[in-house]
Amino acid sequence: MSVVLVDAGGTNIGSVRYALQRLGVDAALTSDAAAIRAADKVILPGVGAAAPGMARLRELGLVDLMRSLTQPVLGVCLGMQLLCERSEEGDVDCLGVVPASVRRFVEQPGLRVPHMGWNRLQRQREHALLAGLGEQDWAYFVHSYAVPHGDYALATTNYGGEFAAVIARNNFHGMQFHPERSAKVGARLLKNFLEL
Amino acid sequence: MLSRRIIPCLDVRDGQVVKGVRFRDHVVMGEIVELALRYRDEGADELVFYDITASPEGRSVDRAWVERVAREIDIPFCVAGGIRSTEDARAVLHAGADKISVNSPALERPQLIDELAAAFGVQCVVVGIDSLRDADGEWRVRQYTGDPSRTQALARRTLDWVSEAQQRGAGEIVLNCMGSDGVRQGYDLEQLAAVRAICQVPLIASGGAGAPEHFRDAFAQADVDGALAASVFHSGAIAIPTLKQWLAEQGAVIRCQERSAAPGAH
């Protein structure tokens, strides 16, 4: 099985790559359209801001390519947000393969932004991506913007309200938390993705 | 609910984990990756590595061990010590660290915080603050605390620096209360609560943990997001699984993970 990591400039690419290696998969880091198109699985990691992330994909000429992929695609953290239609962060159009608009956490007393730390995943729908996930498993989050709960949400997390923690629409999937940094739970979910 | 984080801190010197009392007299505690794996298996929520001599010596973190840790560890970790530019930070982040923490270099040049936040996002940027109460009752910031011969008292008030750091783009504050560090008499709850009141980003308590009650009090009384400790974990005086179980029973939101598998099962 060939897995590629799309090099959109995120700083967590190394960590995701190591996590895949721990699962026995050597994923190539690439921004080459042909290599991405030919891969069995495509992962779009991302740490950073939406506007530079999209600018980078545009620069690399990968926007239409990413939209047209038919194999399983996984966006991680910012990578998940880039799958959506728009992001409030920098007010930017994203890939638009998941019908959602990314919003900033609304500041409220006691709610610190960024949402940083371990929080629970609440399963909303059955899906192969969630195989083996417990009722209240913990995952590690670091983000200031979030995808609202919607019918694309496989699992949600509560932080000043429910937001989408795991999403799926057609062949596109996303995890708002960092599976590469979510201990056994994260490793299981990454493994599930590799087995889709 | 977001869980409170238990964070072992590993002070790194010459590629090994060391621990001193009140920042002096360091003794070797063990090998970096070995200790990191032990804490991961025990249920640590995050790890912080401080290269304690990098900043005083004017050099940046040795990225080789950062990469070794990143390959092995599947929980988040932060690296501190001698990061004085976006280039230094990029090297550490690309080696696999999730966050970088700046302390002395940010005091030398506060603009560094803005630059790091702009380059990597606030979620990567931790500002570490070493703080000590002066005779006049005011908490003030200390610099170059990794080297006692160079440690400096600054005129900067801790609360002012916390505010400024947030405005400039700190995504998290680690407050090391030097007066309580290394003596295991508990976190400085008064100081932590004062900082909490003006801190809108995650706040991590550091310095003084000696008993499970100290963690409970930091969470319950100072409302910190995480509690950092070193010697009590390194020495085995407090076992993380027992601590976390007890804190959960005390009503804290704590990630008590599934029974840990044998090391190497990951």
TrEMBL record, chain A:
<keyword id="KW-0963">Cytoplasm</keyword>
<dbReference type="InterPro" id="IPR010139">
    <property type="entry name" value="Imidazole-glycPsynth_HisH"/>
</dbReference>
<keyword id="KW-0378">Hydrolase</keyword>
<dbReference type="GO" id="GO:0016829">
    <property type="term" value="F:lyase activity"/>
</dbReference>
<keyword id="KW-0456">Lyase</keyword>
<feature type="active site" description="Nucleophile">
    <location>
        <position position="77"/>
    </location>
</feature>
<feature type="domain" description="Glutamine amidotransferase">
    <location>
        <begin position="4"/>
        <end position="194"/>
    </location>
</feature>
<comment type="pathway">
    <text>Amino-acid biosynthesis; L-histidine biosynthesis; L-histidine from 5-phospho-alpha-D-ribose 1-diphosphate: step 5/9.</text>
</comment>
<dbReference type="InterPro" id="IPR029062">
    <property type="entry name" value="Class_I_gatase-like"/>
</dbReference>
<feature type="active site">
    <location>
        <position position="180"/>
    </location>
</feature>
<dbReference type="InterPro" id="IPR017926">
    <property type="entry name" value="GATASE"/>
</dbReference>
<keyword id="KW-0368">Histidine biosynthesis</keyword>
<comment type="subunit">
    <text>Heterodimer of HisH and HisF.</text>
</comment>
<dbReference type="Pfam" id="PF00117">
    <property type="entry name" value="GATase"/>
</dbReference>
<keyword id="KW-0028">Amino-acid biosynthesis</keyword>
<comment type="function">
    <text>IGPS catalyzes the conversion of PRFAR and glutamine to IGP, AICAR and glutamate. The HisH subunit catalyzes the hydrolysis of glutamine to glutamate and ammonia as part of the synthesis of IGP and AICAR. The resulting ammonia molecule is channeled to the active site of HisF.</text>
</comment>
<keyword id="KW-0315">Glutamine amidotransferase</keyword>
<protein>
    <recommendedName>
        <fullName>Imidazole glycerol phosphate synthase subunit HisH</fullName>
        <ecNumber>4.3.2.10</ecNumber>
        <ecNumber>3.5.1.2</ecNumber>
    </recommendedName>
</protein>
<feature type="active site">
    <location>
        <position position="178"/>
    </location>
</feature>
Automatic annotation (TrEMBL), chain B:
<comment type="subunit">
    <text>Heterodimer of HisH and HisF.</text>
</comment>
<comment type="similarity">
    <text>Belongs to the HisA/HisF family.</text>
</comment>
<dbReference type="InterPro" id="IPR013785">
    <property type="entry name" value="Aldolase_TIM"/>
</dbReference>
<feature type="active site">
    <location>
        <position position="130"/>
    </location>
</feature>
<protein>
    <recommendedName>
        <fullName>Imidazole glycerol phosphate synthase subunit HisF</fullName>
        <ecNumber>4.3.2.10</ecNumber>
    </recommendedName>
</protein>
<keyword id="KW-0456">Lyase</keyword>
<dbReference type="InterPro" id="IPR050064">
    <property type="entry name" value="IGPS_HisA/HisF"/>
</dbReference>
<feature type="active site">
    <location>
        <position position="11"/>
    </location>
</feature>
<keyword id="KW-0963">Cytoplasm</keyword>
<keyword id="KW-0368">Histidine biosynthesis</keyword>
<comment type="function">
    <text>IGPS catalyzes the conversion of PRFAR and glutamine to IGP, AICAR and glutamate. The HisF subunit catalyzes the cyclization activity that produces IGP and AICAR from PRFAR using the ammonia provided by the HisH subunit.</text>
</comment>
<dbReference type="InterPro" id="IPR011060">
    <property type="entry name" value="RibuloseP-bd_barrel"/>
</dbReference>
<dbReference type="Pfam" id="PF00977">
    <property type="entry name" value="His_biosynth"/>
</dbReference>
<comment type="pathway">
    <text>Amino-acid biosynthesis; L-histidine biosynthesis; L-histidine from 5-phospho-alpha-D-ribose 1-diphosphate: step 5/9.</text>
</comment>
<dbReference type="InterPro" id="IPR006062">
    <property type="entry name" value="His_biosynth"/>
</dbReference>
<keyword id="KW-0028">Amino-acid biosynthesis</keyword>
<dbReference type="InterPro" id="IPR004651">
    <property type="entry name" value="HisF"/>
</dbReference>
<dbReference type="GO" id="GO:0016829">
    <property type="term" value="F:lyase activity"/>
</dbReference>
